[in-house]
Write a structure and sequence with these properties.
The structure holds three protein chains of three kinds.
Chain A lengths: L5 H30 L7 H19 L2 H25 L4 H24 L12 E2 L9 H5 L1 E2 L1 H19 L1 H11 L1 H6 L4 H28 L10 H12 L3 H23 L6 H19 L19
Antiparallel strand pairs in A: 1-2
Chain B lengths: L18 E12 L2 E12 L3 E5 L6 H8 L7 E6 L2 E3 L4 H6 L2 E4 L11 H6 L10 H15 L14 H14 L4 E5 L7 H16 L3 E6 L2 H7 L2 E6 L2 E6 L1 H6 L2 H13 L20 E10 L6 E9 L3 E5 L6 H9 L6 E6 L2 E2 L5 H6 L2 E4 L3 H5 L6 H4 L11 E2 L2 E2 L1 H14 L16 H13 L5 E5 L7 H16 L3 E5 L3 H7 L2 E6 L2 E7 L4 H11 L4
Parallel strand pairs in B: 3-8, 3-9, 6-7, 7-8, 13-20, 13-21, 16-19, 19-20
Antiparallel strand pairs in B: 1-2, 1-4, 4-5, 9-10, 11-12, 11-14, 14-15, 17-18, 21-22
Helix pairs in contact in B: 4-5, 15-16
Chain C lengths: L3 H4 L11 H29 L4 H14 L1 H26 L7 H19 L5 H19 L1 H10 L3 H23 L30 H18 L1 H11 L1 H6 L4 H28 L10 H11 L4 H24 L6 H28 L1
Helix pairs in contact in C: 2-15, 3-4, 3-14, 4-9, 4-12, 4-13, 4-14, 5-6, 5-8, 5-12, 6-12, 7-8, 7-12, 9-10, 9-12, 9-14, 13-14, 13-15
The chains are: A mainly alpha, B alpha/beta, C mainly alpha.
């Protein structure tokens, strides 16, 4: 009865956004990689490393903007390794992806221990940027139009990606890199470079998503804090089948199920966090059970490109 | 062969200009092979220049060098009389050389228009309306119908090829290279392609048409260069080609392709009359919809010691027929009798145990595991069988002995029985398959395109093995797209077209014509 | 699906051609990356302000040269070896079972919930066997859904196993906190299996007999995969599924069999860890062995005996690392970093070797 109060719903939506934005950013990135034929299992590691570098720089420079940039850069560093080892040298994408995730987990936990384990520094809340007059719309305004910069950036990015995929030569080239790399090569575009760029952008977005988790959502860096978000983002990208808008929808859906705990607690219902934490994963399995075969992947996914071999 | 009487009559009108492209003394070596040896070829505008040769004659390597995928080790490529280095596909395009490869180079998940836009400056929006108009325009000029908005994955192979030709032309190609362009086409589509080539040269384009089919070469070519074992062994210029009758041309080309000394012997083998035994394999009303091409109402029988050839253009259900017979595809309806007992419901393994063998044409894709040793590949279909396994435990000694026996008996050139089979040459991989399928208690053997992609020597060895299999009393089904091979080996020849057998003829002097009639009869439907 | 680059040289190239240069190659390929990884790891330590030499010396001393440390190292190996066996079966058959963590933890939770309760009812030995069986069964059940989706729907198992793994870890926590809570304690954990009812120790040491179970499992798996017809079938499916169909194998059936064995071994690992070492499961406990062992078995090129060596190395690193964390202050996560760097250096070495060989052939 009193469950669906306004405060419950607003908590739920804000929570869905807070939890959904990292998924959205990483998912958009992964979608880009997958489009070009790289299965980026290292996404979790990129997010985590971005979360760390973002927090570190934001905390030590006192500049949130620098923090976000550093987060993206951190993710990109991990992605550069991935691009070098998998795209350029043709090593196995799954094994290297897992290795990079482990490395990021170990390294960030180590660095966190050395730097923060005694002080546990915390960042202040991130200021919001109200988009007047939209922010004055009752109910919707405070949720959608009084948010932080990264949120706006992520939403705009969805539109930008959708436009790039559908309306530009770049979008066509990306599609070809994953579906028929030999055709792209024959058209005079370097497949390896295309994929390298895609992986780097993926890393930047995943890193930014991680930084969002540490800087905006948590305000602290905690070891292993991405907690499987990278892997959920991979699934999101697979299910969205190349459509950025679907990543947005999926990210909010998963974000919503993650934020249900807090919202329910606000509403006075006590459900253990672990039950709630199961929700997104259970949902993925359910979707996969139903959608099954339709979770289509590019033909050349996971294969490195060698000119002349078909 | 299917289009002799439909060859365009516009031959006389084509003007022969100066060479657009010329290869001069080009040599290309790969580890262990000389793919092209001192080849000199000139391509003139307004001419269809046919590069004719068997599989392994070095045609694809020439294409690779002209399209920028490979570079010659020696010799030079001249374009408009100037020496050029064609370093990349992009550069080849820029120099006006457009290549249509045997395997489609279109992105299936993009529309025709977007495939044309591929490779444009990445920050720009493709001019879709302009491209689409251009496609319609060029298509109309060439008498083609192409829907620019169609997804490539929804087009037939023939349509995809037309799209690729259009694309090459719209990119300003003056020289169009068609690599084994008819191999994947239906007879009807192949004829249409031939007519298109004639229209292209009428507009002053130079066309290089690569094929191993002699009749197509004569039907569509103005000039024919014959390649053999990497060397150019002869060229027939337009005057000579027009001045001679068709049969004279065929005779001359065959002499070039096979070498004069073998003339006669390799063209037409007098059938040794064998004594045929009882019926071994009987197929009745066999249907199957599970494969890419539905197989319909197939009936035939093969006797012990007999070779039944199955002719037809590639992709007309031959592969599916072989797989239904072997048990890899489920039978829809009909019956398959081996030695009089039904085995249509039996598994692949049961059929093999009862004496049915299948030599696949996809040697590395499904026939072998490239990373497994030769010795293991001999046993892929007998995993767990006595004496190589006892109680599920491997017996390396037995496996090694068998492998050594096979390597010796089948003359397999391999560093050792533990060498990964993927490291062997195509011919030796085929020998591994033959050793696996032809030893033991085989009753009936299906060969799918057994000599496809092999060099001349291995073709000869393989054909000898096929004949030996029949001579030893096995029933043989020989699927081949090479009519000459069938005429050389088979006792009777069936023609397969769009999933059906159009008829079966005895292999006598009229066989070639009879098969031609059966093939073109299919077109009327 | 199989890993061309890292595994290309597994069992196949075991055939020796030229002994001495080959041996040299193998040694440089095996030792070079290890040295490089230790040096790079040392750099990380140096950057963090620790002395790498004294750290490594301390780790080796604590984990291998002190009796109690060595015993802890060997005990830790038991569950890790079972995970390795689980991964070897799957990877050799071309199936990416990345869901070992969920399979392990759920099995551990069920074992910890049921075995202490049955203690009074069943004799100790029967109870332990029951525990091992429960672990294997729970693990296998948790692998069933991805197996079926892969076998019948062709759904990519990387994703489904990862999702089932996260789901399983959360479910395990829920079960510990809500269903299997020990009423006798205030901390959220399951009932505890008394030390005398656990897996017996070896001889006079504190090494758990879980080590024997792990060794037997990994060696058995290795022999099955390399020496039996069943293993050959699995390897055929893994190397080339189309060739398997051509040879008349039922790929779906074999896929499900592989999943069942692999997930059961992961579950068995959970059971051995509980029955041998921990005795109970505390809430939010997740050692995440599986994803950590993935690089190890790849370092060993999916070879069972090689895996034993790498598992020993890793076990020593973590045991030594844990006491170094207490003494020197380097967190135990450092062993993760070493393993990850090791995998990357090995991949690079493999790549350089391949290029070198190609050049030599020309």
């Amino acid at each position: 009865m009193a469950l669906f109060t306004q405060s419950f719903i607003i908590t739920l939506f804000l929570g869905a956004i807070a939890a959904g934005i990292p998924l959205l950013l990483a998912g958009l990135g992964e979608q880009l990689s997958e489009k070009t034929g790289v299965l980026n299992i290292g996404l979790e590691g990129m997010m985590l490393f971005g979360a760390y570098t973002g927090f570190l720089v934001a905390w030590s420079s006192d500049s949130l903007a620098l923090g976000f940039v550093a987060g993206a850069a951190g993710g990109m560093v991990v992605a550069a390794l991935m691009a070098l080892l998998c795209v350029r040298l043709g090593l196995n994408q799954i094994v290297i992806g897992i290795a990079l995730t482990l490395a990021a987990e170990g390294l960030t936990a180590l660095l966190h221990f050395v730097q923060f384990s005694r002080t546990y520094p915390r960042l202040d809340g991130v200021p919001t940027l109200p988009l007047w007059p939209l922010s004055e719309i009752p109910f919707v305004g405070p949720i959608l139009f009084n948010n932080n910069v990264v949120f706006y950036f992520a939403i705009v990015l969805v539109a930008v990606f959708a436009w790039v995929y559908r309306q530009t030569n770049l979008g066509i080239a990306l599609q070809a890199a994953g579906d028929k790399p030999a055709a792209l090569d024959a058209a005079g575009v370097d497949v390896t470079n295309t994929r390298t760029m895609a992986v780097l952008v993926t890393g930047a977005l995943a890193g930014l998503g991680g930084a969002y988790m540490s800087i905006v959502v948590a305000g602290v860096f905690v070891p292993f804090m991405t907690h499987g978000n990278g892997f959920i983002a991979i699934v999101l990208a697979m299910l969205a089948r190349g459509r950025p808008l679907w990543v947005l929808g999926g990210a909010l859906l998963f974000g919503g199920s993650l934020s249900l705990t807090t919202a329910l607690q606000v509403a006075g219902v006590d459900i253990p966090t672990d039950v709630i934490q199961m929700l997104p994963f259970a949902m993925v399995m359910l979707v996969l059970l139903v959608a099954g075969r339709k979770a289509a992947l590019p033909v050349a996914l996971g294969e490195s490109f060698v000119r002349g071999s078909r | 062969m299917q289009a002799l009487d439909q060859a365009p009559a516009a031959l006389a009108a084509t003007p022969s200009g100066a060479p657009v492209v010329a290869l001069r003394g080009v040599t290309k070596r790969f580890p262990g092979v000389v793919a092209n040896d001192d080849v000199t070829i000139e391509i003139r505008s307004g001419e269809v220049h046919v590069l004719l040769g068997e599989n392994g004659a070095g045609k694809s390597t020439l294409v690779g060098m002209l399209s920028g995928l490979q570079q010659p080790d020696e010799g030079r490529i001249e374009i408009d009389g100037k020496v050029c280095v064609v370093a990349s596909p992009k550069q080849a395009l820029a120099m006006g050389m457009g290549t249509v490869f045997q395997h489609s180079m279109l992105v299936p998940s993009l529309t025709v228009t977007d495939n044309f836009a591929l490779g444009g400056p990445w920050w720009k929006r493709p001019d879709r309306a302009g491209i689409a108009a251009g496609i319609r325009d060029t298509a109309r000029r060439l008498g083609l119908r192409v829907d620019p908005q169609a997804l490539v994955s929804s087009l037939s192979l023939g349509e995809r090829q037309q799209v690729e030709i259009l694309r090459a032309l719209m990119r300003g190609s003056r020289c169009l290279i068609l690599d084994e362009a008819t191999a994947m086409l239906t007879p009807h589509e192949a004829v249409a392609l031939g007519e298109l080539m004639r229209r292209l040269v009428a507009q002053g384009i130079a066309v290089i048409f690569i094929t191993h089919k002699l009749n197509e070469a004569i039907a569509y070519g103005d000039r024919i260069s014959v390649l053999r074992l990497g060397r150019k062994v002869g060229e027939i210029d337009p005057d000579a080609l027009r001045g001679a009758s068709e049969s004279e041309n065929i005779e001359r080309i065959i002499a070039l392709m096979f070498g004069t000394s073998e003339k006669g012997e390799s063209v037409r083998r007098v059938q040794v009359s064998r004594r045929l035994g009882d019926v071994v394999l009987t197929v009745e009303g066999l249907c199957c919809d599970a494969g890419r091409v539905p197989v319909r109402d197939i009936s035939f029988s093969v006797r012990s010691g007999e070779i039944l050839g199955i002719a037809g253009i590639d992709g007309n259900g031959q592969k599916e027929l072989a797989e239904v017979l072997a048990g890899q595809l489920p039978r829809g309806s009909g019956s398959i009798l081996l030695m009089g007992s039904e085995m249509g419901g039996a598994s692949v393994g049961e059929r093999r145990n009862r004496g049915l063998r299948y030599v696949t044409d996809d040697r590395l894709g499904e026939g072998t595991v490239g990373t497994f040793p030769v010795a293991t590949n001999f046993l892929l279909k007998d995993i767990g069988a006595d004496p190589f396994w006892r109680g599920g435990i491997e017996r390396p000694q037995e496996i090694r002995l068998q492998a050594e026996r096979h390597v010796r008996d089948f003359d397999i050139r391999t560093p050792g029985t533990q060498t990964p089979v993927g490291k062997l040459s195509g011919g030796n991989i085929q020998k591994v398959l033959l050793a696996r399928e032809l030893t033991g208690a085989a009753e009936a053997v299906i060969f799918a395109k057994p000599t496809y992609g092999l060099d001349v020597n291995n073709i000869r060895t393989t054909r000898k093995r096929i004949r030996e299999a029949a001579d030893s009393g096995k029933a043989v089904v020989l699927i081949s797209t090479d009519l000459d091979e069938l005429l050389e080996l088979a006792d009777r020849i069936a023609v397969m077209d769009r999933g059906r057998l159009r008829g079966i003829v005895g292999n006598d002097d009229d066989a070639r014509d009879a098969i031609g009639r059966l093939m073109s009869a299919g077109d009327d439907e | 699906m199989t890993d061309e680059q890292v595994v290309s040289a597994t069992a196949q190239s075991a055939a020796r051609t030229d002994t001495f240069p080959r041996l040299l190659r193998v040694v440089s390929l095996g030792v070079g990356p290890l040295v490089a990884a230790l040096v790079l790891g040392g750099l990380v330590l140096l950057l963090m302000g620790f002395n790498p030499l004294s750290y490594y010396a301390y780790v080796v001393q604590r984990a291998i040269f002190s009796p109690s440390g060595l015993e802890a190292t060997l005990t830790r190996m038991g569950p890790l070896l079972l995970i390795a066996a689980s991964l070897i079966v799957a990877f050799r058959a071309g199936i990416w079972n990345l869901g070992g963590d969920g399979q392990y933890l759920l099995a551990a939770v069920f074992v910890a919930a049921i075995v202490p309760l049955m203690l009074g009812i069943l004799p100790v030995w029967t109870n332990l066997l029951l525990g091992l069986f429960i672990g294997a069964a729970v693990g296998a059940i948790w692998g069933l859904l991805p197996a079926i989706l892969k076998a019948w729907q062709g759904l990519n198992e990387i994703i489904t196993t990862l999702m089932m793994s996260f789901l399983g870890v959360s479910l395990a926590n829920v079960l510990v906190k809500l269903a299997f809570l020990d009423p006798a304690t205030t901390t959220p954990q399951t009932r505890t299996l008394p030390v005398e009812a656990r897996l017996p120790r070896l001889f006079d040491t504190s090494v758990s007999s879980g080590l024997i179970i792990g060794l037997v499992a990994v060696i058995a798996v290795h022999l099955i995969m390399t020496r039996t017809s069943f293993g050959m079938r699995l390897r055929l499916v893994g190397a080339n599924p189309r060739a398997a169909i051509h040879a008349g194998l039922s790929v779906p059936t074999l896929t499900i069999a592989v999943f069942a064995i692999s997930a059961a071994l992961a579950g068995l690992s959970g059971a051995v860890d509980i029955l041998g070492t921990h005795g109970n499961v505390r809430a939010d406990w997740n050692p995440a062995y599986s994803l950590t062992v993935v690089p190890l078995v790849f370092l060993a090129r999916l070879n069972g005996f090689g895996s034993i060596a790498y598992v020993f190395l890793f076990s020593a690193l973590t045991i030594g690392g844990e006491s170094a964390a207490r003494r020197i202050g380097v967190p135990s996560f450092f062993s993760l970093v070493i393993v990850a760097i090791l995998l990357i250096t090995l991949g690079l070495a493999e790549y350089l070797d391949k290029r070198h060989q190609e050049r030599a052939r020309r």
